[in-house]
Write a structure and sequence with these properties.
Blueprint: H1 2-30, H2 37-60, H3 64-70, H4 75-103, H5 105-125, H6 129-141, H7 144-159, H8 167-197, H9 199-205, H10 208-220, H11 237-245, H12 247-277, H13 283-293
Length: about 290
Amino acid sequence: MNEALDTIILNSFRISLAIALIIIIYKRASAVQTINPDLKKLIHRYFSCYIALFLAAFIQMPYRCHLLLNKGLTHAQISEIFGIANIFVALWNLFMPIALKKLGHANLCIIVALSYFFNAGILAFGSQFTHFAIAGCLQGLTMPTAMMALMDYWMTEELLLPQNSNANYIFNEQRVAMSLFMSSSSSMISNAVAHNWGVEAIFSFTLSIPLASIILLVSLLHVKEKPEEKSIGGDFSKLKLWLTESPKNIIIIFTEIAFASSIISSYIICRRFYSLLLTNHQWDTYKAFTEFST
C-alpha cells in the first residue's frame, strides 16, 4: 500500500512538472520577441552555462549520501561533512560581495565551476574522511542557492539587461523553464547512470559538466564590450569607509558570523548525538529517553 501511494505521488509530481514545462515553453514560443539579437545570443550562452553548472548538482544530489555510505563513512561522519558544507555556505554568502568586487562575476563563476570539478573528482576517487571533508568545503561553494545568487548578480550588473524592454521578463521565464527541465530530467539521468554503471560513475560522469561550463564562461567574457568594468579590479575603499563610519557596523558583521556558526554548530551536535543514540549499544538509552519525553 505504501509503495503504491509513493508511486502515485511520484508520478503525479512528474506529470505536474511536465505540464508546467509545456506551458512555459508554449508561452516562451508565443511571446513577442523584442530583444536585441546580440543580447539574445548573450542570454542563450548564459543559459547554456547555467544548465551545465546546475545539471551537475541535480545529478549528484540523490546519490551523494549513498556514495559516502558505500565508501565506509558512518552517519555521524556524513553529518559532519554536510555541516562543514553549510558552514562554507554561510561564509560564502557573507563574503561573496567582497569577492565580487575583487575578482569579478565571471571570474568567480569560473572558480565555482572548478570547485564543482574538484568536488566531483574527490567524491568519485577519494577513500578517507579527510578527502570527503575537503569535498564538503568545496560543496559549500557549489550549493545551487549560492550559485543562483552569484549568477543573478552577474546578470543584473554585467549583462546589463535593458530596463525598457521585455528582456528581464524573458530571462526570468527562461530560467523557470530550465529549472523545470532539470528537475524533471536529472533524476532519470542519475538513476540510469547509477543502474548501468554504479553510484561512483555518477560523480565521474559529472566531472565533464563543469569543464563544459568553464569553456562557456570564458566565451562569455568576450561577448561584448562592457561600458564599465564595475566588478573586476574593484577595491575595498567603500568597505573600509562603511566599517569606519560606526563601530556598530563591525559588530553587525561579527554578530552575523557568530549567529550562523552557532546555528550550524548546533545542527552538527544534534545530528551527531542522534546518530550515537541510534547505535545498537545506545538503543536502550534512546528508548528510555523517548518514553520519558512522551
